[in-house]
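Narrative progress, year one. The postdoctoral researcher (J.K.) led the effort to move from monomer predictions toward full complexes, under supervision of the PI. The following entry was the first complex the group processed end to end, covering 763 residues in total.
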Amino acid sequence: MVYAEYAWLIPIMPIIGLLLVALLGKKTPEGGGYFAVGGIAASCVLGVMVAFEYLTGGSSEPISGTMTWLQLNSLLKLEMGYYIDSLSAVMLIVVTILCTLILVYSLGYMHEEGERKRRYYIEMSLFVVGMEGLVVASNYLEMFIFWEMMGLCSYLLIGFWYFKPSAAAAAKKAFLVTRIGDILFMTGIIIIFASLGTLNFRELFTMDFANPTIDMNLLGFGLFCVFGGAVGKSAQFPLHDWLPDAMEGPTTVSALIHAATMVKAGVYLVARSFPLMVQTPDVLLIVACIGGFTALFAATMALNNPNIKRVLAYSTISQLGYMFLALGAGGYMIATANFNEAAAELGNAGYMAGMFHLLNHAFFKALLFLGAGAVIHAVHTEDMRLMGGLSKKLKITSFVMLIGALSIAGIPPLSGFWSKDEVLAAVYNAGSVNVWFYLLYIMGVVTAFLTAFYMFRLWFMTFKGEGKEATHHAHEAPKSMAVPLMILAIFAFSTGFILMGPDGGLPAVIRTVNIDGQLIAGETLGLGWIEKLFTEWQTWLSIVAAVSGVGLAYMAYYKKSISVDRFATGGSKKVYDMLLARYWFPKGYDWIGMKAVYGFSLAIDLFDRKVIDGVVNAISRLAVAGSGTLRKVQTGVVQTYATVIIAALSAILFLMYLLGGLR
Amino acid sequence: MIPQEYFLALASILFVIGAYGVLTRKNAIVVLMCIELMLNAANINFVTFAAFRNDTAGQVFALFSIAIAAAEVAVGLAILLNLQKMQDTINLDDIKLLRW
């Protein structure tokens, strides 16, 4: 291993870029953007080399290096370091490539921002540091530090146009809502540290959980808290509401942070904790239920939203739900398999499906967001009702967006199809262990249908139909934007095919997960697997769901043979409005904030004013009145004092005489 | 020989007369004189015990006490002189600036 030992350098590269932007940004073109791109590209090269070396190395043993940060006592210590295994290697590839492409795209997209560009590139570089640090981190605490760093950058970048009140509010909301998750995550870390005595992944993943001194209930609660952190970061129900608002930031930020990388950190965290979570199946059931519910729930809100970026945001939430669903289902299978190899293998397939969907989603969602960015760049509006007919003017953009939409909709043979199908298959298989998973499977299929529908609604509304006023002066994006789009389109089209490569698809290393210190190998894929895939009814069900979704969108928004306006009026208007109002979640938050919390605060304020202040004032008034009376003792006549002294002395002496003290 | 108690009784009577004067008289000069009485009562006690216990230390203390009494009267009279100058009175009932 030549490069893997330098994995710690990966997050250092963007720091160098950041410093160069900060020092020289004012004097160089594009606000120093080229330095930021350079730093991130360097980390990309190194990251891909590390990942490639690890994945082709043939060994599934993780590579890690740590140094002691804090020695708490002779047994407990906190460390810093890097930890490379198949999971972080895959994440490294996804994250570094996407960060580089999106930064290159930024050069074109942010061209007109002037002075603010320098701030933009600094914040983006810092974000990349956080994300890459999170991926290579060797323990939970280190992960948490980078996790918080990303949270800060997310806040700063959502509020990039801070002079817009809506952007400032959205930034605040994102920060506060994810904070709930962060506090849970921190609680989880503390519980894990307290119950297992280490935070280091290498030690945690080789731990003997048969040891009766480990309190499994406490550990389960700790892992539930860790999942709470993932819920906040990955915008899952009930902490999902910040992500649609986060679209107030620049589109590149939405693409990088709120679609491709940071929101994936939650999924990554759960996948990272997988060897621990399979010890506590209940937590995994919760993960699967929240994921499945969020997938459907968020997809419905995307159905009628007129804002192109918000539709993509809901779709992100929904797809993240898919990943949690797959992880939960797969983990549940392994946890309840009881060393049954076939069941464990099916469970591993769920884990793989989740991670595979993460990889595919990162590429096609980044593509969709950047495509949406190119559209917004061209027409200067985010409202799809003002767009239409853009496919003639934005030929490249409309084509790559079509690839992205087909991919996310799950039309074979694009990448989204393979991973979505694997997710659904994993959930269906888990149904044989716990019936709830059949319900989640149905929700997943419905979500697939809805996804296909709303993505093609977006595509038809934007690129087909008649041109509107806003679209007359539309022009194709500059080269720095078009090239990343095309590269991403190639990825979005083809990442599914790695399943079909030689040697069972991916190198065998990727398809293993480390449980109880044992490596469980996944099922071998390849051409035989694909043949089997297309003979199963579940596969055809998801294809039918996807195609009918696309067809419905085609009829409703292209042919207009189904009138959609009917739903906006009449009996279904209530549902329509409910979806636009996001199930009244923002209202609910406002109600909690403005009425419940404010009312409670008023009551507390009243208590403070009347009771606490009352007691304090009463005490002081008593003191004032008492001393007002007592001060009259001070007459100023010396003889009075002398009288008191002599009288008191006499009294004391008399008492002493009586009590026998004078003898 | 006159018994010790007679001397002590005389000293007590003198002390109480002095104390009564200090507490009741309005004229500051009389108060000073009463203080002298109290000091002399103490001196009588010193001398008495010195004589009856054959210890000359008591006499020495009596001499010191007389010297200090002289100094005290000097200071006291100086204060009263200034008081008379500034307040135009030495009636102790009228001198009550240091009060509420």
